[in-house]
Amino acid sequence: MLHLRMISPPETTDPVLRVLADEPGVTHITCARGVAIEPEGDLIQADIAREAANEVIERLKELGIEHTGGLTLVPVETVLSDAGDRAVDEAPGDPTDAVVWEELLAQTHEESSLNSTFVAFLTIACLLAAVGVATDSPVTIVGAMVVGPEFGPLAAFSVGLVRRDWALVRRSAVALLVAFPVAMVVTLAATAIWEQFGWITLTGVEHSNNVDFIYEVGPFSLIVALLAGAAGMLSLVTSKSAALIGVFISVTTVPAAGFAVVAATVGKWNIAMMSVGQLAVNLSGIVVAGVIVLELRPRAGNDVGPVERCKQWLGMTSKVEKVNWVEK
């Protein structure tokens, strides 16, 4: 479930309470009038089943709560309440299938911003990838994969496409289009210095047999990118953050960028171009998979996903839900 906390001006409080009371997926409604100081107003709290959250939020936004007051939404890990159980049961769909769009937009908005921290992490990851190539070390390459922060803007790009939020799409694209060149230029300068010391050589790059998978583009490059992108988006919408580690070490986005730089410094332009191709395939595959996952999941508060529809027809859900689905 999700815990909803609002500050509402007095003239809007009663309509807000009606919205909450009319939704069977909402429970534990409380109201403390006149206690809010900044902004002034009434404090309203409630618990909402994830499946009902989108519809409730949309109706509250129609009342202008986000402009005249404020709205905070946080996940609730444990709820011991018969009323809470009823709210989850009466809300259409399954909690794990529900995409709470405002929650997802808030997450991806933060991850998609171009800032010094994002550029620093990406630069460090590219430098690690260059060291991994120079030392033929798969372990270092894996470290570069984990450090790389590029999945955030890629996920935001997918969300922006699905929601037709072109500002989010532009912000995500700018973050990637600026940060990657900056990281690669810094890595280029570092590798040029290392080459002068003899730490990076043409022979070493040509015999990097343990990390040559980075630039070898093939059908499985796209398949892995699609699977990783799907797993990453699922981890975001279901708050399963542990799965993101698997995503980070599955795709060779940052290592491909690092390998392209190292190969270019020693004059291996064919390997450099193959690495750039690998980078493009991985970035595109992650975005496409993210869009597909979001399109297949419920799009509104009273929608259900394809899995839930099958469960309904197999008699695994309530009669009320089945009637609602038939009416649609």
TrEMBL record:
Key word tRNA-binding present: no
Cell wall biogenesis/degradation among keywords: no
Regions crossing the membrane: 117-135, 141-162, 174-194, 214-237, 244-265, 271-294
Pfam families: DUF389 (PF04087)
Keyword terms: Membrane, Transmembrane, Transmembrane helix
Name of this protein: DUF389 domain-containing protein
Species lineage: Bacteria, Bacillati, Actinomycetota, Actinomycetes, Mycobacteriales
